[in-house]
Amino acid sequence: MLILTDFLIVAIVLVFFSIVSYALKLLDFQGVLIANVVGLAAITFSPNPLLSFLTVVVFFVIGEVASNFPKKKHEKRNIWNVVGNSLPALVALCLIISFPEKSFLFELAFFGAISAALSDTLSSEIGYFSKSLPISIITFKKVPKGEDGGVTILGELAALFGAIIISIIYFLAYQNMVSAIIVIFAGMVGTNVDSIMGALFETKKILSNTHVNLIGCASGAIFAFLVGLIFLI
Fold first, then answer.
1. Does pTM top 0.85 for this prediction?
2. Which pLDDT belongs to residue 202?
3. Which of 149, 173, 208, 216 has the largest count of CB atoms under 10 Å?
């Protein structure tokens, strides 16, 4: 439960984030609004509000740094970019209210979804700088740089780094190594499911990038939930 000091900290961070994101054209107006909704939902439904809020902030900050460095600026993100990367995590938190007896598993699913989102973001943004051409995750043939479903060793390492960051946050909060490892694997599962969906459906315009991101992040959440259910309960 948030105390007044915590609420003020959250409010200041959200205001700062909104101003910077809009001023630097990282998000459009609708994107800023939905990002604030994500932050507020994280502190409203989570059993550990500040931890969930911090995790969301870390994802957004690291994702934006990777997307704009070095001298590489992405197009202004909109509401659908934010939804695609955050909706599965929010659903996991909301389910805690409906199933409080499984709050531990749904919180683990939340971290799995964020891990997948950050892994996929870093894989795409950092993998772009790979000196070798990507390989299709389906055909294992070389594909043009930037093609959906293409993976590189650099991109996979970047994805692993992103998953480890979220895992460290989880571990520092709960001191549970098994769960922290699950969060890492959830991130890698999510980002590679994203690549598979991209290769199979996004390249053929059957699914959009938002759909693919949703599926990838949801895969990370579901993986974390099911593995936690099997090994931790």
1. yes
2. 95
3. 216
Asked if 123 and 197 touch (Cβ cutoff 8 Å), the reply is no
* Structural domain count of the chain: 1
Tokens 């509000």 sit on residue: 49
- Positive or negative CA dihedral for 162, 122, 124, 127? negative
Query: Amino acid letter at 28?
Result: D
For 172-224, write each residue's pLDDT tens digit.
999 999 999 999 999 999 999 999 999 999 999 999 999 999 999 999 999 99
| 108 close to 179: Cβ distance less than 8 angstroms | yes
Residue with tokens 């799995």: 112
pLDDT over threshold 90, residue 23: no
The alpha carbon of residue 77 and the mean position of all alpha carbons in its chain are separated, in whole angstroms, by: 15
pLDDT in tens, 71-105: 555 555 667 778 888 999 999 999 988 899 999 99
Contacts for 77-80 with beta carbons within 8 Å, 24 or more apart? 77/26, 77/27, 77/28, 77/31, 78/27, 78/28, 78/30, 78/31, 79/28, 79/30, 79/31, 79/33, 79/34, 80/208, 80/210
> How far apart (Å, rounded) are the C-alpha atoms in residues 203 and 173?
40
CA distances from 208 to 81, 148, 179, 180, 185 (A): 11, 11, 32, 31, 25
Alpha carbons 223 and 196: distance in angstroms, whole number: 16
Domain range for 47: 4-231
